[in-house]
Description:
- The chain has helices at residues 2-11, 69-92, 97-106, 110-114, 118-140, 144-178, 180-184; strands at 18-23, 28-37, 40-45, 48-53, 57-62, 65-67.
- It has a domain at 97-178.
- The longest helix has 35 residues, at 144-178.
- The protein has seven helices and six strands; from the N terminus they run αββββββαααααα.
- By secondary structure, it is of the alpha+beta class.
- Helix 3 (97-106) packs antiparallel against helix 6.
- The chain has a six-stranded antiparallel sheet with strand order 4-3-2-1-5-6.
Amino acid sequence: xxxxxxxxxxxxxxxxxxxxxxxxxxxxxxxxxxxxxxxxxxxxxxxxxxxxxxxxxxxxxxxxxxxxxxxxxxxxxxxxxxxxxxxxxxxxxxxxxxxxxxxxxxxxxxxxxxxxxxxxxxxxxxxxxxxxxxxxxxxxxxxxxxxxxxxxxxxxxxxxxxxxxxxxxxxxxxxxxxxxxxxxxxxxxxxxxxxxxxxxxxxx
Length: 204
């Protein structure tokens, strides 16, 4: 029983695993796993990407270990599920950079809170509250000479907070677009006819 569990674990698909596929009617494809779709696999090899419909697979091996077609389909479905869950997690914490920019402009720290960075967001928001409160106190006491440099400090702080939050939002958004699942979700209608050249997702 333990031997069977070990073999199943060894055959489980992960990105980077080497897969050799024999197609129905002849022909072979060999490459590293990039992602999985509902009924297909994306393999990379020789600087090319192969999108293989699992319906056309006659036999396969994973990292040199023979696998049945049924097991390959099961492993591909499990990989697709894992990558889809990861993509959902990234999307949940990846608001659009423009929205983060607007929130940060309204109040520094708000953009970081949208990104799920609660401690950092509260820190920025607290500093902004102190700066605004101090400015209000200076204005109330007619201490205008002190108000001018304070406004300069507040402006620099706001610019830094906005640029930090927006930069993080852009990087997270780029990770979502570059996720292998983003491309893997498009595999269901593909067939194993050879290399398919496509632009990298997220590129201009």
